[in-house]
Amino acid sequence: MTFLHKLAQRLARLKVALLIGLLATLACERPVTAVLNTALRVASINVSPAAASVPVGRAMQLIATPRDSTGAPLTGRALTWLSSNLNVAAVDGGGLVTGQAPGAATIAAVSEGVTGTATLTVTNIPVASVTVTPVTASISPGQMWQLTASPKDANGNPLTGRVVTWASSATAIATVNVSGLVTGVTAGSATITATSEGQSGTAAVTVSVVPVASVTVSPAPASVPVGQTVQLTATPRDANNNPLLGRVVTWVSSNTLVATVNGSGLVIGVATGSATITATSEGVTGTAVITVTVPPPPPPAGTCPNQPGGLTTLTDFDFNAVLPVGTAMPVGTSGWAINNDLGWATRVVDASSPGTNTAVGQWRYPGGDSRIAGGAPATMYRNVGAPREVFICVWFKISNPFYLPSSGMSKLFFQFFQSNQMFWYFDGRNPGDHHTLWLRMETGEAGNRAPNVSDVNLTWGVWHKFEGYLKYGTSPTTNSIVRVWIDGTLVEDYNNVTFMNDAGFGEWQFSPTWGGSLPGESPPADCFLWYDDIHISRP
């Protein structure tokens, strides 16, 4: 082989080696790969729709599109969804948004640290219709009937929490209150309309007069002493014996020389004998036979026949001193004091007083004056020295008429055990109850005790004698005693009373509270309570 030929072969092999080395060197550098990675990063996220509205309880789908720096969409990237106010709108992991309550919220989609948002407004579903049930109703005057309104959406689904207003087309025939309670007024027809967000529904109400089929008079029969009263009640009823409201009732006595009756059914015994009291409504009558008896003689004036032996008189006060106006004012030298800021307690003369003289204490409940609500005209009080046994005797008279507050009760006397108390009251919440004296323990056993021996009428306009005996037992919480006599008759005899503490009997009060009455309440006219001949004794 010639020299030139060998040289050519060597040059060819060297060229190939140089080419391979150059390629190897290029392969060690990766600028192309770096450019590709930068292009595939998430640079922005588009959420669509960017602003949307959805009703409460409804859902809508949001779409998030991650994009690279050139704006090209990227697929397969993980997304996280967030709501700025979960009380307004909730969003799940797939971008499905549900309205929770009216308001606005920002919904965010996050991928690789980049965020895109949409603004969502949640609105109430509009009321499309209002359904009133029942659609028709028939009632009588004075009868009430409950209607119900249901606002609904366009698909007939009930909507809750919507404001509904009610109106009657003829309030002279039927009225309706804010809750849809309809009251019949007089015969006729009326349309009751319920409106919510401009949409209305109606019910047709017919008011018709149901005829009176019978009249029930109670109590029947009844007995009343001469000079005292008994309250009768008449109830008109339909053919099914249902009571009928708002009917006119007239009263008449068959013998006014024996018993009279006024327009409200209050019977007064005039002389011994019997009389038939008739109540008439729309030509239908009911009756009650009244027997008028000889009244029991009152206890002798100035005596307290039921006082136990072994007690010593603490005070006998017959109102021989004036009742001063002011606070904590002494009443003469009797040991009594009075809070009488308004001057509603005074000493007056009552010729009918059974006491030792005609001077009595008068507590006035002023008509039309709301300052009396929940309070007493005045409070006269005396410390009894904390004994474990005490006896109280006093005459009292309730005016006729006496106007009770809405609570139906009025208090007479208080006995205090340091800061705790018990009191007696008369109650008029049910017909005839104002004739009964009740005992209430304000704390301790905190309950009412009715007469448990006999029930003596507290006749308004007549003097009655109250005698009360209180004694601690071996333990104040087990076997303490309370006994009460009215006009010499034992009415309450309890030997299991729970007293409030073991401090003894502290203070006796004449604080005849009118109530509990509502704020602003007052009697329609003046009424009164009188006291006379107060006697308290203790060991």
Automatic annotation (TrEMBL):
Signal peptide per UniProt: 1-34
Domain BIG2 stretches: 41-121, 126-206, 211-291
Taxonomy, superkingdom: Bacteria
SMART domains for the chain: BID_2
Pfam families per record: Big_2
Keywords noted in UniProt: Signal
Stated name of the protein: BIG2 domain-containing protein
Organism: Candidatus Segetimicrobium genomatis
